[in-house]
Amino acid sequence: MSDDNPDVWLEQRITRIAGPEDERLAPYRNVRERDLVGREGRFIAEGKVVLNVLLANRSFAIESLLIIENRLAGLKDQIRLCPADVPIYCVSRTTIDAIAGFPMHRGILAVGRRMNPLSVQALIDTLSPTALVVVLCGISNHDNMGSIFRNAAAFEADCVIMDETSCDPLYRKAIRVSVGATLKVPFAQQGPIEAIIETLQDAGFTLFGLSPSGLTSINSVQPAQRTALLLGTEGEGLPPALLQQLQTARIPMSSDFDSLNVATASGIALSRLSRFASL
Amino acid sequence: MSDDNPDVWLEQRITRIAGPEDERLAPYRNVRERDLVGREGRFIAEGKVVLNVLLANRSFAIESLLIIENRLAGLKDQIRLCPADVPIYCVSRTTIDAIAGFPMHRGILAVGRRMNPLSVQALIDTLSPTALVVVLCGISNHDNMGSIFRNAAAFEADCVIMDETSCDPLYRKAIRVSVGATLKVPFAQQGPIEAIIETLQDAGFTLFGLSPSGLTSINSVQPAQRTALLLGTEGEGLPPALLQQLQTARIPMSSDFDSLNVATASGIALSRLSRFASL
């Protein structure tokens, strides 16, 4: 698939930029630090796999692409799929590293924007009578957030709902760790966990709080037609007051060791609660 | 448990060091970079939880401890457990950050050393007639290595065996991610994967290679009395030639998405193969 002479259409479609000072590259400057400040619904997606997910999902707009020159030939399909009014900038490795503020191994960056986020209620209204939902309370680590979304996609959870204290799944690192799942699995983030639980109960969901002290083994839980799996922060877990109101489940494991990482726990629980448990 | 005036015994046990230039602190200098070069069986352990695991396991020696002064009072139990000939250095936050080369949030570092590592055969010889072993082929990411050990500890796998192309579980980050499990679960690393498999088969182990293309669903696998779970690199998975010789298992999941992270996959498979599967 090597192609040292890019096609004419490709050369006409892209915009070559010579150095890192060009103002059109401003959205890509110091992406690592900028991610920590207000992003107005925008996010940075990295790599070909994530770009494919982004291109496939109409809930997101692409504002521009930045591609290192030696990756161009391998990205013709993606470039063809990109709407004609989206600028595609092409630069040298030196320039992309200078802009990004660190060595960019993947050579592809996109600025995306989430359009019309749904409220928790509106998202639940889109679900089928049979549904599996992941609910997150206070997940503050972007690696865990990304991994949980990856697991939600692998086991075909219908959506993820997060409380206001959870971190942003569209943070660059969360997107990367999720292999694009945060751009694939529908999600809503809104308000306190108690309000989310009430909304789910009103919609006929049976909720299971996952906790090392949970009453039922996850191996014995019978999923309902509409099931929600609740996960809390790794340090504190779900608030005790919440656990008292809900059915609770535990993953049987050694009493001799620190509990599982919350992302791994989500994978194990989803493998038991999803339709794949019986396959 | 606050204690602004450390006991006399504590003050006599520790060695206060005023600045970062002191030669006794040399093993702790730039731990982040040094980890990448030869370490002669030594490793850096961080934090109280990991220190507890290190103190409990006679397979490891502690060469010295470095503690930030405001953590002293909370570490009396650990200091009491530390052999009398192990130096315990105490420094200010400014000094520890200057030595480590980055802000040390945990305030506790230990230099440990692994004593008399076992060969694969010798490690297998220590196992009971009923055993669950994790075998790793080409796991090169320290986060994955640490997470797999954490899962092995959670589901009480008896040991981990790694081929020569896998990374070092005593790398600082692997120890940290494992929450000390790489200092708890016995392991051996030696030679090519083919030799490891042969040794396990000779010892009566039934081996299951985990792969998205595996023949049997992990939900249907019947563990043998001696079971070994084989995991390959995330990118390539286990070599096809190897999979052809072995029983293979898959985790049923969406065909529509990139496969699970290898660490998450290890957790799901171990939850099915361990004695906890029936609890």
Automatic annotation (TrEMBL), chains A, B:
Domain of life: Bacteria
Protein species of origin: Phyllobacterium ifriqiyense
Descriptive protein name: tRNA G18 (Ribose-2'-O)-methylase SpoU
Keyword check for Transferase: yes
InterPro entries in alphabetical order: Alpha/beta_knot_MTases, Ribosomal_eL30-like_sf, rRNA_Methyltransferase, SpoU_MeTrfase, tRNA_m1G_MTases_N
Record's keyword terms, sorted: Methyltransferase, Transferase
Lineage start: Bacteria, Pseudomonadati, Pseudomonadota, Alphaproteobacteria, Hyphomicrobiales
Domain annotation tRNA/rRNA methyltransferase SpoU type: ranges: 132-270
Pfam families named in the record: SpoU_methylase (PF00588)
